[in-house]
What we know:
Shape: elongated
Distance between the termini: 118 Å
Strand order of the largest sheet: 6-5-4-7-8-9-10-11-12-15-16
Number of strands: 16
Radius of gyration: 29 Å
Structural class: alpha+beta
Amino acid sequence: MTASVWLILGVGVIVLLVAAIRKKDTQSLKKVEISITGVQNHYFIDKKDIKRILKRVHKNSLDNAVMSSLDLVSMEKELQKEKWIKKAELFVDNNHVLQVKVIEREPVARVFTTTGASFYLDSSLMRLPLSTKFSARLPVFTSFPTDVLVLTKGDSILLNDIKELSGFIENDEFWMAQIDQIDITPGRTFELIPKVGNQIIRFGDMNNYKEKFNNLLAFYKHVQVKAGWNRYSVIDVQYKNQVVAVQRDAKEIKADSVRAIQIMKNIIAEAQKKTNDTTNVQLKHENDQININQSRVRDDIPEQNDVPGRTTSREPSKRNEAPVTPAAERRGATASTPSKPVVKKEIKPKTTESPKAVMPARRDDR
């Protein structure tokens, strides 16, 4: 008798569940809610794009769609085919609302290859296409050696180095404002091109990269501010605990001025504001006005106009300086330009946090 009662109750529960499921399946959606996460300042895919993909899979509008007609698995798979979507999750809640949760990929660097092609790189080393919707303000790398999709071990290591170096620069307001672009040499090392100072900074590989930035900052504070921002054609920070600088020929040295120092001070001040858009700094010195435009790289300029080894999509600065030239041309010009013997500046920090640049006696040029 007891077994029969339990059997009847079990059958009743099953019947009720089936009826509830059937009733729910015949009901219509009230609305679709889409949330996009995983990014801070970039939105390369928006809600309209997601709705368009869902409509294509469903082959009809989702407004008032019958819930039994939804193929959520196929919708998720189709969304995750989009390169800018890292993960997608869909479900219908108890209020008959279709919840669409999307995690977007966030780029960490803009990379130009030796052929002039360009792509974004995200934290998982995924190469992402350019977008007509948004142009991210990121560190720019030039002369990546290949366009192929299947990378060699060496190219994969280089991409990882780009990710690490770009992340460090982007998270530091001063270096993000000061570093104009990073060139990749044939030896797979890095050369930094500054916004202030007409020289090449030979950075080398990623070994001890934080120490190299500390040494370069010490050189800026203790040597270059006093000697002049354009006195040296090359600053080499590859060596441990020292900075090696190549002085320009006397005919090439431009007189130092308060203007260059003031430019640097304004870059630091503007960087601290953490602006995400174009920064315009206006300075006055002896009735001169200088405009410094930190322009975002535009994605809407055709790729064929990009020149290997230089960021042609970046608007030229309004400062009185020569345009950025390809890395190979700069290296060739530097090698052929007469220069004085190498002047080594020993960086002997007072503490481990702030190395000090020591200037040895320099030969009298007169």
